[in-house]
Amino acid sequence: MAVRVSNRDDPLLAAVLAFAPMWKAIASAGFRSQTMLYLLFSGGPDSVGLALALRSFARLAASPPSAGLRRFTPPALGRVGLTAALKFLSRPREIRLTLLHLNHQLRPTADEEEEWVRRFARRHGLCCVCERKDVATFARQKRTSVEDAGRILRYNLLQEKLEDDPTALGFTAHTLDDNAESVLYSLAQRAGIAGMLGIAPALHGRILRPFLFVRKQTILKELRRRRQKFLTDETNLLSDRPRTFLRHAVVPRMQDLNPKFLENALATCDNLRSYEGLFRWALSTVTEIAVAEDRRWRRTRPLPLLPELTWHAFAPDSWGQDIAGSLQVVLHHLLRSFGASLDWAVCARLAEEIRSSHGFRASGGPQITVEYHSPSGLLLIVRRGELEGCELGEGRTVLGSNLLQVERVRGERLRSAIRTLAASDFRVCFKGTPRLAGGEPGGGALYEAVFASNVAVPLQVRAAKRGDRVVLPSSQGSTKLSDVFINAKIPQSLRSNWPVVTNAEGKVLWLPGLLRSGEARVSGRARSGLRLSWEVQSS
After folding, report:
1. I need a surface site. Which of 236, 253, 514, 526 has the fewest CB within 10 A?
2. CA dihedral in degrees (70, 76, 81, 86; nearest 10)?
3. Count of Cβ atoms closer than 10 Å to residue 477 Cβ
């Protein structure tokens, strides 16, 4: 015999049956004859109400009416949801509901509450799984609040059950009130658009929140009508925490301002969620542009840098005025994509400096520098590691992505090396349009120097130091290495890993790609010399 259950008489069941994401999840699982449901159950009014609603849903599915199914399926479901609901209820199916309760061990009454949950499950013929966790200790270990720690552990419990059964569905009893509190809390924390989306109706498609469209007052009214008892967390009655302060002091005032505040907050979240896909597409498109630019810039400028430095670069000021107004949001997203992080205020300052063509540097995380280099228009993300210098004897040496070779040359080989150097000696300069350092993009780069024959090996390769000087060619005196970097417009974030080649006494002979010391230059009449090639492998 069909069970007489009407969603007109049961507003809690009606909320479950009108929840389109549930029918979508059931359809995705293939309309199975048996479905496992898991509900995070605290024993509070919301979870008690949802447990009763899901139990009614299980009874309806086990013995659906032979006619009049449409009275259980509201038109608001839409054609896809309505079709799925009618198909699922077209024949008897088994739904097994399990309550998941986490004993937080935070209150003296925690064990009594766990026992109440067990009795509730037995009374209503439901399965029940109770776990005990030391939430306070977990919160200290994770350096988070007790509230967040409890949430993590509860969802871990639910996720374990869903992983064991890929066709099972999970439920939480978040309400319309909870969503409004979440939005207000995010607004207070400046959480950005992600926080303003509120609570998702369906998390990962399998954790469902059918009461998200139901006021808490509606649930309480129905439980009172049924004379159904529930647990009360006394800490939720005090306004001494951010969430409870919003619940008792802010939300009621907002409802005084507009009685439909809760519904309007949810509608705003839905509207923003509709735009979220567009935002994600736009950010994904900009990210693709930045990644392509980064690849091109690094290939057209294969730099002779000491390991373990990695760098990325793109030119946001070349993307046009259409994106200028949203540059702060774009940069906040892009920097994370490249492994750096700046807060909103710093991103706003960076965006303003880019629009004004002014330089900018800031820390983007441990060993990470974010620099806007105005002469080239590049935004650089530079990650520094442990500097690795080395000693160069005759022969080949591998240094990170660099291949170094030292050899004695004489006769025609020496003259050929001098001619090649005179014709193709590349100078790195970060100003304006990039000049290719190795011919075809992606082909790497070859930097060369030919020193006088009296230069002894081994040579030393190290990072530039404060106070380093180099003798200029043609007896023009000497200059500080810092001035060489400034004249070549080298970004400050790259200078600490720019290599310096010295002799055994520490005298600077060469800055690859920038300057060869006048003291170490070989004359055209020399019979022999010392050739050093520095090849940057393509990335």
Report:
1. 253
2. 0
3. 9
Report CA 369 to chain centroid distance, whole Å: 18
Contact in structure between 461 and 500 (CB atoms under 8 Å): yes
CB 532 within 8 A of CB 448: yes
Amino acid residing at 169: L
Is 430 within 8 Å of 488 (Cβ atoms)? yes
| C-alpha distances in Å from residue 431, one per residue of 341, 434, 486 | 26, 7, 11
pLDDT per position as a tens digit, 517-531? 877 778 777 888 899
pLDDT digits (tens, 9 = 90+) for 59-113: 999 999 877 677 777 777 888 889 999 999 999 999 999 999 999 988 889 999 9
Helix axes 45-62, 216-226, angle to 10 degrees: 70
Give buried/exposed letters for 64-92 (b at 16+ CB in 10 A, else e): beeeebeebbbeebeeebbebbbebbeee
β-strand partners of 510: 501, 516
CB-based contact 48:180 (threshold 8 Å): no
Q: How confident is the model at residue 26 (pLDDT cuts 50, 70, 90)?
A: very high
Local structure of 151: helix, strand or coil:
helix
DSSP E strand stretches across 315-355: none
Q: Of the candidates 251, 303, 335, which has an alpha carbon nearest to the alpha carbon of residue 534?
A: 303
Tell me the helix, strand and coil percentages in the chain, rounded to 5. Answer: 45, 20, 35
CA count, 13 A, side-chain hemisphere, 29: 22
CB-neighbour burial class of residue 97 (10 A; exposed 0-12, middle 13-18, buried 19+) = buried
Q: Show the beta-strand stretches assigned E in 440-536.
A: 445-452, 459-463, 469-471, 478-480, 499-502, 508-511, 515-516, 528-536
Burial of 370 from C-beta contacts in 10 A (0-12 / 13-18 / 19+): buried
Phi and psi at 360, nearest 5°, equal -155, 140
pLDDT higher than threshold 80 for residue 335: yes
Residue with tokens 């530079």: 382
Domains of the chain and any CATH numbers: 11-276 (3.40.50.620), 280-383 (no CATH), 390-536 (3.50.40.10)
Could you give the CA distance from residue 123 to residue 145 in angstroms, rounded to a whole number?
Answer: 35
Scanning the structure block, which residue is given the tokens 């043609």? 474
- CB count within 10 Å of CB 381 equals 23
Peptide linkage before 308 cis (omega within 30 of 0): yes
Q: From CA 21, how far away is CA 184, in angstroms rounded?
A: 25
